[in-house]
């Protein structure tokens, strides 16, 4: 390895070609981030040389190149290991400068630049040998088009590309700077001299047998980070002989560099390209090891060196898994029509905002699991779906779920294929940890029946639950299917049967507390339904008779018609809401069942800190939802003049000179009673009209919406 500081003239003058390997990322530099700053640096350098320091230089950065063995008489060739963006940009700049000089008739200066952008004809065996730099395959056509364009260049006739845009930017900047004055040719010579002899680059030249990959990784460790997919690609194709590399790239890897795979997706709070996320999940499925996404490249190299070994055999495996992964995701995104069981699982679990199950889905689809029957695959997905949905409904924490899935795959992997479905059920049934347990019927019923469903769960969860309830009525995915087909997914909206603005068209002789109770009840599961077309305000807030007629005559949702039948005699009321809530919870438990006799966790500890029943005032203070010193007054009909409490810094309630651990204790003290009194309903945040119960429920909903399914930074999937 030789390291030296060189000038562009030193790099490009001798006949040679610097080749960017096909597995490196394409040209990504841009106007504001790189082109304009480079041009500004050059202009400032010229000013410094002319006014202050005639020996001034400007450092551009480093490149790493590795010599490629070539036969006698062949053009000398080097692979660009690092610095391809910089080298390509310099070539585009130099060619734009050459075109500007030619166009103005400054032939001597133009002839000085030409050897830096073209190899002599006598050195060329192939047409592309003309160029000093030969980009990665995705950029070659655009690079050749702009570098070969006749002067004056008509950029509108060139195919759109970053290459064209960079060349155009430099051409305009050079033209504006040169101007039209008498000293234009002198300025041109000064610009050419500055660019070719005053810009400095640290060049690291490797012999053919040196480890280019190790140096590439080191140089990229602290620069603009490459994606895991970029690093893995570079590593894989370094292992292949050059003669095999290009064909293997096109056959097995090129799809990863299309927009769908290069799109950024979020896992937890961390963004990664979809290709990187897939490679992480695939590797977890292959190794049955739990590691964070930031380690995927290191883990991949370890896997190749210890298990896979032959990258030729590995590439088809990755390609097959990637194609099926994409088909599953794209299939689950179809809004209309029937989905396969895998696609439906992917859609429903996706509505819970989690990708935790992806490694298991990848594992289940690998050739080693081909012996698992279709029936057992459906049972596995049904079991997992129940586990995910029930945990979402009781707001069980998702932290640690990645480890659960990895352990689950391992447990199933140890059993014969014929027992795979039972193995999944057994594993989840026995789990007792907070991260892994499978909530039983009693816990789900308690959580959902007492929840303000409309405000306690994200809309995507609400919609998915109602879609599943409706599809079950229509016979999907199992049962006797109706001709109407499954409901359109992801499009319907949640509607209150008794409207939130009930006071205008649903009047009743209610006390203030009864009105507050109605306001709470109308957010329950039983008062909600799903509609396939938006209701206008008049219908949505209209009287029961009008709304009922609309649902009967203009909407085809079966679960809504069930609600109408329930209220046929007495009309829609709090009693009907309560009864329907119980009915729908019963259907949810049937739709996402647990094994007979399953009760969830053996102990009665809370399932989650964010479950409404287990959030305390101290949690609200710590999270910033209540400030220390917040004034509380008795709400509604409980109001008493002169009664006021405050929230302490440690989340207790101070009433006069006495501090109470819980809101209920302070409420009972006001009335000097020892019986039950719900302090969360009793106390109101002064001046807001919001009871402590409302603050707590909003906090829970917010915590649920922002909860990390799996933090990639923390090693979760």
Furnish the topology, listing elements before pairings.
Blueprint: E1 2-6, H1 8-12, E2 17-19, H2 31-51, E3 58-68, E4 77-82, H3 84-104, H4 107-117, E5 133-134, H5 140-147, H6 162-178, H7 184-197, E6 199-206, H8 212-220, H9 228-238, H10 242-253, H11 259-262, E7 264-267, E8 270-273, H12 274-287, H13 296-308, H14 311-332, H15 341-351, H16 358-364, H17 374-393, H18 401-413, H19 420-430, H20 441-449, H21 453-456, H22 459-473, E9 493-496, H23 502-505, H24 512-521, E10 528-531, H25 537-540, H26 544-554, H27 558-566, H28 574-591, H29 617-622, E11 631-634, E12 645-647, E13 653-655, E14 658-660, H30 663-671, H31 679-682, E15 683-685, E16 690-691, H32 692-706
Helix pairs in contact: 2-6, 2-7, 3-4, 3-6, 5-6, 9-13, 12-13, 12-16, 14-15, 15-17, 17-19, 18-19, 20-28, 22-28
Description:
This protein is of the alpha+beta class and 717 residues long. The protein folds into 4 domains: 2-220, no CATH class; 228-443, no CATH class; 449-591, no CATH class; 612-706, no CATH class. It has 32 helices and 16 strands. The chain has a 6-stranded mixed beta sheet with strand order 1-6-3-4-2-5. Strands 14-13-12-11-15-16 form a 6-stranded antiparallel beta sheet. It is elongated and about 100 Å long. The model is unreliable at 603-613 and 704-717 (pLDDT under 50).
């Amino acid at each position: 390895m030789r390291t030296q500081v060189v000038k562009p003239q030193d790099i490009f003058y001798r006949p040679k070609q610097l080749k960017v390997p096909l597995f490196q990322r394409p040209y990504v530099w841009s106007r504001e981030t790189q082109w304009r700053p480079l041009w500004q640096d050059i202009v400032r350098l010229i000013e410094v040389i002319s006014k202050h320091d005639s020996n001034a230089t400007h450092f551009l950065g480093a490149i790493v190149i590795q010599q490629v063995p070539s036969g006698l008489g062949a053009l000398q060739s080097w692979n660009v290991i690092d610095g391809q963006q910089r080298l390509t940009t310099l070539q585009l700049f130099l060619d734009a400068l050459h075109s500007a000089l030619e166009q103005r008739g400054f032939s001597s200066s133009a002839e000085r630049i030409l050897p830096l952008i073209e190899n002599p004809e006598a050195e060329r065996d192939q047409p592309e040998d003309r160029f000093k730099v030969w980009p990665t395959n995705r950029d070659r056509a655009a690079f050749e088009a702009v570098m070969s364009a006749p002067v004056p260049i008509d950029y509108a006739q060139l195919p759109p590309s970053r290459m064209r845009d960079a060349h155009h930017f430099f051409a305009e900047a050079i033209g504006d700077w040169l101007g039209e004055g008498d000293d234009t040719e002198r300025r041109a010579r000064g610009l050419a001299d500055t660019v070719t002899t005053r810009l400095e680059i640290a060049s690291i030249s490797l012999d053919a047998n040196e480890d280019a990959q190790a140096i590439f990784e080191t140089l990229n460790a602290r620069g603009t980070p490459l994606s895991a997919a970029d690093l893995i690609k570079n590593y894989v194709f370094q292992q292949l002989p050059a003669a095999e590399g290009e064909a293997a790239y096109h056959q097995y890897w090129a799809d990863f560099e299309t927009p769908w795979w290069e799109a950024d997706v979020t896992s937890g709070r961390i963004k990664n390209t979809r290709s990187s996320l897939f490679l992480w999940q695939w590797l977890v499925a292959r190794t049955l090891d739990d590691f964070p996404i930031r380690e995927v490249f290191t883990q991949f190299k370890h896997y190749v060196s210890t298990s896979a070994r032959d990258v030729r055999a590995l590439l088809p495996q990755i390609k097959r898994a990637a194609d099926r992964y994409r088909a599953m995701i794209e299939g689950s995104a179809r809004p209309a029509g029937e989905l396969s069981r895998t696609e439906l699982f992917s859609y429903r679990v996706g509505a819970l905002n989690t990708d935790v199950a992806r490694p298991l889905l990848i594992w289940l689809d690998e050739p080693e699991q081909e012996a698992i029957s279709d029936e057992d695959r459906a049972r596995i997905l049904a079991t997992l779906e129940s586990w995910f949905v029930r945990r979402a409904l009781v707001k069980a924490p998702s932290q640690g779920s990645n480890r659960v899935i990895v352990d689950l795959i391992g447990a199933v992997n140890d059993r014969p294929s014929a027992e795979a479905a039972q193995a999944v059920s057994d594993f989840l049934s026995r789990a007792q940890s907070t991260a892994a347990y499978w909530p039983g019927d009693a816990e789900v019923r308690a959580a959902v029946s007492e929840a303000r469903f409309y405000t306690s769960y994200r809309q995507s969860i609400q919609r998915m639950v109602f879609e599943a309830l409706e599809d079950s009525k229509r016979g999907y995915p199992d049962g006797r299917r109706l001709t109407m087909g499954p409901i359109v997914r992801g499009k319907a909206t949640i509607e209150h049967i008794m409207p939130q603005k009930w006071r205008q068209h649903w009047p009743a002789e209610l006390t203030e507390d009864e009105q507050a109770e109605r306001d709470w009840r109308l957010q329950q599961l039983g008062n909600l339904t799903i509609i396939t077309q938006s209701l206008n305000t008049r219908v949505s807030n209209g009287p029961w008779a009008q709304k009922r007629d609309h649902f009967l005559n203009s909407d085809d949702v079966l679960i809504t018609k069930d609600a109408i039948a329930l209220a046929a005699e007495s009309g829609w009321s709090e009693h009907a809401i309560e009864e329907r809530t119980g009915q729908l919870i019963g259907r949810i438990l049937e739709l996402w069942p647990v094994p007979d006799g399953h009760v969830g966790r053996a102990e009665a500890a809370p399932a989650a800190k964010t479950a409404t029943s287990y959030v305390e005032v101290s949690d609200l203070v710590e999270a910033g939802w209540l400030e220390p010193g917040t004034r509380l007054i008795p709400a509604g009909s409980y109001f008493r003049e002169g009664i006021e409490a405050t929230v302490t810094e440690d989340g207790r309630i101070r009433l006069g000179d006495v501090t109470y651990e819980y809101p209920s204790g302070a409420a009972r003290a006001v009335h000097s009673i020892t019986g039950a009194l719900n302090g969360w309903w009793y106390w109101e945040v002064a001046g807001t009209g919001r009871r402590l119960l409302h603050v707590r429920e909003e906090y829970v909903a917010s915590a649920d919406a922002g909860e990390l399914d799996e933090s990639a930074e923390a090693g979760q999937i």
